[in-house]
Amino acid sequence: MQILGFTSADFQFRCFILGIAIVSCFTQVSSAANETDKSALLAFKAGITEDPLGVLSSWNNTIDLCQWYGVTCSRRHRNRVTALNLYSLKLSGPISPHIGNLSFLRELRLYNNSFGHEIPPQIGQLRRLRILILGNNSLTGEIPRNTSRCLNLHHLVLAGNQLGGEVPPEIGSLVKLRYLHLRRNNLTGGVPSSIGNLSSLEQLYLSNNNLGGSLPWVLGRLTNLTSLAFGENTLSARWINPYVDS
Ligand SMILES: *[C@@H]1O[C@H](CO)[C@@H](O)[C@H](O)[C@H]1NC(C)=O
Ligand SMILES: *[C@@H]1O[C@H](CO)[C@@H](O)[C@H](O)[C@H]1NC(C)=O
Ligand SMILES: *[C@@H]1O[C@H](CO)[C@@H](O)[C@H](O)[C@H]1NC(C)=O
Ligand SMILES: *[C@@H]1O[C@H](CO)[C@@H](O)[C@H](O)[C@H]1NC(C)=O
Ligand SMILES: *[C@@H]1O[C@H](CO)[C@@H](O)[C@H](O)[C@H]1NC(C)=O
Ligand SMILES: *[C@@H]1O[C@H](CO)[C@@H](O)[C@H](O)[C@H]1NC(C)=O
Ligand SMILES: *[C@@H]1O[C@H](CO)[C@@H](O)[C@H](O)[C@H]1NC(C)=O
Ligand SMILES: *[C@@H]1O[C@H](CO)[C@@H](O)[C@H](O)[C@H]1NC(C)=O
Ligand SMILES: *[C@@H]1O[C@H](CO)[C@@H](O)[C@H](O)[C@H]1NC(C)=O
């Protein structure tokens, strides 16, 4: 039988070849790893000025991204990074703004190194971030207001840096926050009353800063608060309660 000059067998063969082409095209698309996280990590590495223990030498193209030192990948999404753990490694340099491209990141632990410069506000793009621990570094500038956009944060540890400026009042939107450690910095201004919105808060450490004013009475709402540190601040010891004061 002939259909428009093709034999039926010919037609079936062409359909078969076309089918293979379509299927292989789709499997290539679905298995093509998204390179965004890899380029973000390579940009992070490029910013590092000192790596005396050589840990970032494993961040090279001959081994898989998910085998790089300190990198944990998603089990479901190929080449997407869910955790970056680079603590106590004597690393120096800035934290690259490209970190904000790691959109699957849930945990970022860079504590006890010598990271300097400012915390990139691109941190605020990490909507899945739960743990942010940058303590014991040499970070300067202010706490980026955009950190308040990481609505899943439950650990925010920035203690032991040289952060200045005020505690951003926007921090009050981080309602899942359980640990807020900002002690041993150079923070100024008052304690924002929005902290009284952090109903999950268990530890609030603000000591060894230049904070002034009074403790907002709304902290009394934080029923889960178990540790509170204000020492070495010039905070007044009494709680300001507008109903009592008026
Ligand atoms: C990779 O993922 C990002 C979001 O994380 C997306 O914007 C980008 O389009 C993706 N790239 C490819 C090639 O799929
Ligand atoms: C890449 O990293 C692996 C694992 O650390 C290491 O053995 C290898 O020498 C590195 N390759 C290059 C070119 O640095
Ligand atoms: C901090 O890192 C240094 C290595 O730079 C290590 O010797 C020390 O034990 C670490 N301290 C903590 C508290 O993790
Ligand atoms: C990653 O982030 C940087 C800085 O925020 C940006 O300039 C760049 O376009 C981003 N790259 C990708 C591949 O998304
Ligand atoms: C910071 O957040 C604002 C919105 O609050 C947004 O417009 C801006 O792009 C964010 N900056 C960065 C660097 O992500
Ligand atoms: C920072 O250093 C102090 C003093 O060594 C230590 O008690 C604390 O656990 C460290 N914190 C972090 C987040 O590294
Ligand atoms: C701390 O802040 C005060 C007042 O803003 C400033 O004079 C001082 O230089 C800062 N110290 C450090 C170590 O950044
Ligand atoms: C948090 O608390 C402040 C003052 O206590 C209040 O004005 C604000 O609406 C609350 N909500 C958020 C998301 O900060
Ligand atoms: C307070 O702590 C209790 C016991 O751990 C927990 O069940 C509850 O959900 C916490 N409340 C908030 C607002 O996180």
From TrEMBL:
Residues 35-74 form the Leucine-rich repeat-containing N-terminal plant-type domain. Pfam families: LRR_1 (PF00560), LRR_14 (PF23598), LRRNT_2 (PF08263). Gene3D superfamilies: Ribonuclease Inhibitor. SUPFAM superfamilies: L domain-like. The keyword Membrane applies. PANTHER family: DNA DAMAGE-REPAIR/TOLERATION PROTEIN DRT100, L DOMAIN-LIKE PROTEIN. This is Probable LRR receptor-like serine/threonine-protein kinase At3g47570. It comes from Rhodamnia argentea.
